[in-house]
Known about the structure:
Strand content: under 5%
Shape: elongated
Radius of gyration: 19 Å
Order of helices and strands: HH
Largest sheet: none
Oligomer: single chain
Structural class: mainly alpha
Number of strands: 0
Distance between the termini: 34 Å
Amino acid sequence: MMKIRATNQQRSLDAFLACKAEFDALLAESQRASADHFGTDPDTVLWAQAAWLTDAIRQLRDIADQHFRRGECAA
């Protein structure tokens, strides 16, 4: 039984680390895009770009709230 538990824990850790690597890559890619104003010229930005960014912020806030147990995710 102990061997099965150790193997399962190792597989769980491997899956977690793979997901974390993908998460970190997505964060880095998003930071690079943000530094470039998400490919939008600040002098010609329109409401569509502001709306898209508002939605992206909402999604990131949901992720942060889940992790930090804030807002609707508060314990």
